[in-house]
Amino acid sequence: xxxxxxxxxxxxxxxxxVVAEDNGFTxxxxxxxxxxYSDVFASMALAAEHTKSMKLACxxxxxxxxxxxxxxxxxxxxxxxxxxxxxxxxxxxxxxRNAMGLPPVPLKRIRECVETCRRLLRGEEVLYRDxxxxxxxxxxxxxxxxxxxxxxxxxxxxxxxxxxxxxxxxLADGWLTVFCEPEVFRQNLAIVKRSAAKAGRTLTSFPxxxxxxxxxxxxxxxxxxxxVIQRCGPRAIVALHYLWEKTPVGGAVPAALxxxxxxxxxxxxxxxxxxxxxxxxxxxxxxxxxxKPGEERFLSESMIRSTTLTGTSEEIIARLKALEAxxxxxxxxxxxxxxRAMIEEFSKEVIAKY
Length: 354
Known about the structure:
The chain is of the alpha/beta class. It has a single domain, classed as TIM Barrel. The protein is 41% helix and 17% strand. The protein is built from 14 helices and 12 strands. The chain has helices at residues 14-21, 40-50, 68-81, 95-98, 107-121, 162-171, 182-198, 226-236, 238-245, 258-267, 279-284, 301-307, 313-325, 339-349; strands at 2-8, 27-31, 55-61, 86-90, 126-130, 133-137, 155-158, 174-178, 208-212, 214-216, 309-311, 330-334. Strand 8, helix 7 and strand 9 form a beta-alpha-beta unit.
């Protein structure tokens, strides 16, 4: 099992990553959500300059946010700063789209982005379409110190719904998903593998990763303590955001949380003091970084435990072992606040004992 740190992109993330690198974490992901966080590639560039061995993943970028040649150029530039330590993650978009009131990017567009970026990153020519125009393009100066195409850049897909999982098996070099129970993870990985076999691919050493956050409980502490809520609450409450947006990711939300969602919708979202056609702005304010006033009412111990790795060190290790048996190879822990404390705590209580 590998351990990663995940960040809503911000330029000073590197300050935590240098600590994480010395505490058993081998990878860092950076979320792209342009209305919420910093620019993802600027944040990755600083991380590349300040880390030594940690792999850096854009986890994930969204094709609608920039044209494919720019995405390929951006990740190839990071690969110049961190040779062989760079991963391009691509997804249909959750907050990066929903925070603007827009739906996820169609999977057809995801396919086009993967295929275009992969060929450009191999140094090949690509027939690029821009409206009515079709033009052949390629990087003209790959060996003059601007980008790095020599070290391979894997492309991973974020996927939860069946069709996206099938596309992952057909095209991707790795798979990212949200935190889920071992049996759900096993079933979803089976879809990926079946699709890969149908496409004539064998997924040996195929990276699989889940995104969550974590808190190791202290003696006598429960999952609703103020410390746990501060650390894990912003991540846990997003389960209700998934359901409100009716995204495919909502399918991963435990059924036991559905009644809680109905109360969240009627007693919280529907009472927001803003026009109904702008409530997505209210829902996504604070997304993954803080709880808005009133949201804490919709947290429960079962929600925190089912959507994050919260428990004693023994409980967390047991859950990770079950996920590893189901095919998981990496867990990414999002830093919400008190990053160094979380990193050092998890390193001492989980990684060192795993």
